[in-house]
Specification:
Number of strands: 9
Shape: globular
Strand order of the largest sheet: 2-3-1-4-5-6
Number of helices: 8
Structural class: alpha/beta
Oligomer: single chain
Bound molecules: guanosine-5'-diphosphate, magnesium ion
Order of helices and strands: HEHEEHEHEHHEEEEHH
């Protein structure tokens, strides 16, 4: 049951369009190397989209040479209960490897988000609009280093650069390396930074006609932002005989799918099970619209 990803819920979320065309979702992941991005993606979609080195190799580089940030996409078709998901994950290797937070660190990523908007705008203005492919970024998972403290200048700068272009979802990476107390206090500090800096995050909406259970579930998700996540695709045996996805320590096992251990389940609810369609709609109706009208205004149209 752990392997059930949950996008089979999509037809329920996806009430407006035909199911036959399949469902596409474009997810961008940003964060420094080694924060567990690839592992988390594999765990979220229960598929090996990325190979993960168990012991990452060290490679020397000149610390004075800026590291270029590049864009790498992986696409995969995932099927569950006859529902097809065309998933594209956009990774940005090189991010966070420069000592400062100047433009070189984030510009290529902002450019990529804009480029995808521009491409859509161009397609949309063509005559045959029924064939418009939506390559826009529908959500951006931002991986915060588990320092136990607040945000770093690059975190703040990056989030400010993208928050009005994407549905921004921050996660505290590798949260198993922090104590429960550290997770709580760093969440508070991070949220305070986000508030003080005027950074807007994606928060799941509550609708007037939601029943009490749905309202409680949505609030339960919002409360956990920034999600403290743990990723693993390894199944291990617990002392009480269960088989779980997790990470093993001398003092015990951290379970990925256990809400007492981390916020992985809540993140998956937000991203996949309950609000994937919402993320796409917000991208199209609000974030893209804003970009589009600013662009047309600049062009004097
Ligand atoms: P990426 O560079 O951000 O894509 O990170 P990877 O997914 O390649 O993971 C880098 C290393 O961290 C690997 O050895 C993973 O096994 C390990 N790792 C991934 N997720 C976690 C986690 O949640 N906690 C811990 N402690 N290690 C993790
Ligand atoms: Mg990776």
């Amino acid at each position: 049951l752990n392997g059930y990803v949950g996008f089979a819920n999509l037809p329920k979320q996806w009430h407006r369009k035909s199911i036959r065309r399949g469902f596409s979702f474009n997810l961008m992941v940003v964060g420094a190397k080694g924060l567990g991005k690839s592992t988390l993606i594999n765990a979220l979609f229960n598929k090996q989209l990325y190979k993960v080195d168990s012991a990452p190799k060290f490679s020397y580089r000149d610390p004075n040479e800026p590291v270029p940030v590049t864009i790498e996409t992986v696409s995969s078709e995932i099927e569950e209960n006859n529902v097809k998901l065309n998933l594209t994950v956009i990774d940005c290797p090189g991010f966070g490897e420069n000592i400062d937070n100047t433009e070189v660190s984030w510009k290529p990523i902002v450019d990529e988000i804009d480029r995808r908007f521009d491409e859509y705008l161009e397609e949309e203005t063509k005559v045959n609009r029924s064939t418009v492919v939506d390559n826009r970024v529908h959500a951006l998972l931002y991986f915060i280093e588990p320092t136990g403290h607040a945000l770093k200048p690059l975190d703040i700068e990056f989030m400010k650069q993208v928050h009005d272009k994407v549905n921004l979802i921050p996660v505290i990476a590798r949260s198993d390396t922090l104590t429960e107390k550290e997770v709580e206090s760093s969440k508070q500090m991070i949220l305070e930074d986000i508030k003080n800096q005027g950074i807007r995050l994606f928060t799941p909406p509550i609708y007037e006609n939601d029943d009490d259970e749905t309202v409680a579930s949505t609030k339960g998700i919002s409360e956990k932002i920034p999600f403290a996540v743990v990723g693993s695709t390894n199944y291990i045996q617990t002392s009480d005989g269960r088989t779980v996805r997790g990470r093993s320590y001398p003092w015990g096992i951290i379970e990925v799918d256990n809400e007492e251990h981390c916020d992985f389940v809540k993140l998956r609810q937000l991203l996949i099970r309950n609000f994937m369609e919402e993320l796409k709609e917000t991208t199209g109706n609000s974030l893209y619209e804003r970009y589009r009208s600013e662009k047309l205004e600049k062009l004097g149209i």
